[in-house]
Each structure stands twice: as structure tokens, then as C-alpha cells.
Design a protein that fits this description.
Elements lengths: L1 E8 L5 E7 L5 H8 L4 E7 L3 H14 L3 E7 L8 H13 L7 E6 L1 H13 L6 E5 L2 H7 L4 E6 L2 E8 L4 E5 L8 H18 L1 H7 L8 H18 L14 H10 L6 H18 L8 H10 L10 H9 L9 E8 L2 E7 L1 H12 L3
Parallel strand pairs: 2-9, 3-4, 3-5, 5-6, 6-9
Antiparallel strand pairs: 1-2, 7-8, 10-11
Helix pairs in contact: 1-2, 3-4, 5-6, 5-8, 6-7, 6-8, 6-10, 7-8, 9-10, 9-12, 10-11, 10-13, 12-13
Nicotinamide-adenine-dinucleotide binds next to helix 4, helix 5 and helix 6.
Length: about 350
């Protein structure tokens, strides 16, 4: 086992995010330190369970925890009320009490749905995140947003429920398919634009992969700080939606066949190009942003028209009243929120389409 960094997130009673290698075999020991409980249920999906469930369960049992598990079919389509119901049923059948806890072992889908289940089972029991994708390490496992999708839209039902511990075992990333690895890197690039500094420097390397541990740590440290200052997304936390206005629109237009990571990559490149074109950026940004996304093989253009994207964006849940709040990069390391009306949003999408 090797611990590279431990980051404290000071929300509620606070929790540690431990980042390192070969952490899974020690998961039980870490967990025993944050809970007095004796029982847990590990929730995982059908791809992750065959790879890591036995290791996690053995470690919990060795630490003296009664350990049961629930495995659901992998995929965003399963992040729904029906799976949530089955997880809640499994927690009840395992006779979990309020002092017991849930372990989410997997990517963002597993983390979101397990956190929601933990947040409402017996009106809320603790949970631990063991993220196994880049996306869930750099983004979804920290911050306490837990949700499922409804037929009417993504993430429409959920709770804010902070984990008691997050264990990022970098070794689990070795089994990720290349495309899913890259998807998560979009959120790292997004964070690099928000923070500038060391993270931006690492993402600018020709091959950033050897620096993944540090990249993940810097992303978590930044997100943790934002969440500490604005847990419920009243203000600053909205900055984390950089690239997501066009990104969500692209996902929607594609009927969710374009992944979140790829859609947001295009959305991030679009807002950088738009900021340059519309005179909002204080320095040229687009080329640098496109280059960073290129390092991970991520796309920077879409075939959907600005009008199609506008239609999709206007039905997005993040729109309040008549205006849409978008995140605009002014420099690397400084982004601002801007409220735009529908006409301006169309102009942004149009400006974001043009290359060169
Ligand atoms: N709560 C938040 O703040 C937040 C933020 C961003 C995204 N999200 C949510 O996260 C979800 C996307 O997360 P994701 O991209 O991790 O999706 P995911 O959990 O579906 O994982 C992607 C795929 O990789 C597989 N997988 C996971 N870990 C693996 C490993 N180590 N080796 C091999 N295969 C592995 C999974 O089985 C799945 O097929 C979305 O539902 C999104 O809404 C939540
Ligand atoms: Zn995202």
C-alpha cells in the first residue's frame, strides 16, 4: 500500500479523500477508522464486481466487518428508481441499522446511486466511496451530489449526502477501457482551466498520463475547496459546469449516445473558442484548450448545429427563469458566470463552432 495524498474535505463533520496505490486490500482498515459500525453492504456494478469486489470484501471482513454485497448491471441506463429500489431492498435484507454503512465500489453511476440509497435508507446512513474511474475520482465521488435519472431527464431525483471517506486506488484505473479513461480526463481538463497553475501545467505535457496521481489530487483539492464554500451550488459551485451547457445539449441531441466526457470535451472547446471570438477572454484560450483535450484523444467539434444545441439547452434543468447561466473562461485560472438570454446563447454556440 502507498498513500500519495490525503485531502480533508471540510463539509459537515468532514471527511478524508485518500489517494494512493494498492489501497483496496487495506480498505477495511481505513473504514474501521471512520466508523464504529460492524456491518456494511458493498454496492458494485457487473463490470467492476468481478475485478475488485472480492478484494474489497475480504479486506472489510479481515477488519472485522460483516460484509454483504449487491451487484447491478453496469450502465447509465441502470441509474434509475428501479435499481435504487433493489439496492434499498438489499440494505434492508442485510439488516443494516443506522450505524452501519454502504460502500460504493465503482464509477460515477455506482457512486451516485449508492450514495442516494445510503442518503435515504432509514433517513440516511453513512457511506464510503471507492471510485474506480477517472471521472469518479476527479469529480463525482467528492461533493455529496447523489442522484438517479428519471425518464424525464438525467439526475432529476437525488439528495446531497456527503461520504464519510473516499478511497482512490489509482491501481484500479489500469483495467479501464481507453475511452472511459479519456472521458474522465475531460473533467480534469475542465478543472485545469478553472485553476490554472500546476494542474494546467501537467495537462499541457505531451503525455500527461504519468502524472495522473497528481492530476487527480489537484482536481480533488480544488473541488473540495469549492464544495466547502458552496455545498448546495448557490454560487461558486456552478463554475464546475464549465463546458457543460453545450456538453449537456450535445448529449441530449445525440440521444445520449455521445458520452458525457466526449460531449463536455466539445462543450469546453466551444466555450473557449466563443470566449476568444466574442472578446470575453483576456488571452487566446482555444488553441491551448484544444491541445489539452487532444492529449487524451478527446473531440473538440460536433456535427449538431447551434440551433439544435439551443433547443436542447433550453430544456436543460439548470436554466432558471429566462436566462441561462454559462461559465466563461477569461484567462486560464479565472472563469466567471455569465447570465445570457436565448439569443446570446445562440451567438455563443455559433461563435463556439468556428475554428481558426
Ligand atoms: N455526483 C456528481 O457530482 C457527479 C459528477 C459528474 C458525473 N456524475 C455521474 O457519474 C456518472 C458517470 O460516471 P462514470 O463515467 O464513472 O460511469 P460508470 O460508473 O458507468 O463507469 C463507466 C464504465 O466503466 C466501468 N468501470 C468502472 N470502473 C472500472 C474499472 N476500474 N475497470 C474496468 N471497468 C470499469 C463501469 O462498469 C462502466 O461500464 C454519470 O451518471 C454522471 O451523472 C456525478
Ligand atoms: Zn461533468
Amino acid at each position: 500500500m502507498q498513500i500519495d495524498e490525503t485531502i480533508r474535505i471540510r463539509v459537515g463533520s468532514g471527511y478524508d479523500v485518500v489517494i494512493g496505490r494498492d489501497l483496496l486490500p487495506a480498505a477495511g482498515t481505513f473504514i474501521r477508522e471512520v466508523t464504529g459500525s460492524r456491518n456494511c453492504v458493498i454496492v458494485s456494478d457487473s463490470n467492476v464486481a468481478p475485478l475488485y469486489l472480492d478484494k474489497a470484501a475480504a479486506s472489510c471482513e479481515e477488519a472485522g466487518l460483516g460484509t454483504q454485497s449487491f451487484v447491478f448491471e453496469a450502465g447509465e441506463e441502470q441509474k434509475n428508481l428501479s435499481t435504487l429500489g433493489r439496492i434499498l431492498g438489499a440494505l434492508a435484507e442485510a439488516h443494516l441499522t443506522r450505524r452501519d454503512f454502504v460502500i460504493a465500489l465503482g464509477g460515477g453511476v455506482t457512486g451516485d446511486i449508492s450514495g442516494f440509497a445510503a442518503g435515504c435508507y432509514m433517513r440516511g446512513i453513512p457511506f464510503v466511496q471507492i471510485p474506480t474511474t477517472v471521472l469518479s475520482m476527479v469529480d463525482s465521488s467528492v461533493g455529496g451530489k447523489c442522484a438517479v435519472d428519471l425518464p424525464q431527464g438525467k439526475n432529476l431525483a437525488g439528495v446531497f449526502h456527503q461520504p464519510s471517506l473516499v478511497l482512490c486506488d489509482i491501481d484500479t484505473l489500469s483495467t479501464l477501457p481507453e475511452e472511459i479513461f479519456a472521458d474522465g480526463c475531460t473533467e480534469a481538463v475542465k478543472t485545469g482551466i478553472l485553476t490554472g497553475g500546476e494542474l494546467y501545467g501537467l495537462l499541457r505535457e505531451d503525455d500527461p498520463k504519468p502524472y495522473m496521481t497528481r492530476i487527480i489530487s489537484l482536481c480533488i483539492a480544488y473541488k473540495g475547496g469549492v464544495v466547502e464554500r458552496d455545498e448546495k451550488e448557490q454560487g461558486e459551485r456552478k463554475l464546475l459546469n464549465l463546458g457543460h451547457t453545450a456538453g449537456h445539449a450535445i448529449e441530449k441531441c445525440s440521444g445520449y449516445t455521445v458520452s458525457h466526457g466526449r460531449a463536455v470535451a466539445v462543450g469546453t472547446a466551444m466555450i473557449a473558442r466563443a470566449a476568444d471570438r466574442l472578446g470575453w477572454s483576456a488571452e487566446p484560450l482555444a488553441a491551448a484548450v484544444e491541445e489539452m483535450l487532444g492529449h487524451f484523444g478527446l473531440p473538440v467539434m460536433t456535427d449538431f448545429s447551434p440551433e439544435q444545441l439551443l433547443d436542447a439547452a433550453l430544456s436543460d434543468k439548470k436554466r432558471s427563469g429566462k436566462k441561462t447561466s454559462i461559465v466563461v473562461p477569461e484567462t486560464i485560472g479565472h472563469c466567471v458566470l455569465k447570465d445570457v438570454d436565448d439569443e446570446q446563447l445562440l451567438e455563443v454556440f455559433k461563435a463556439g463552432m468556428r475554428i481558426g
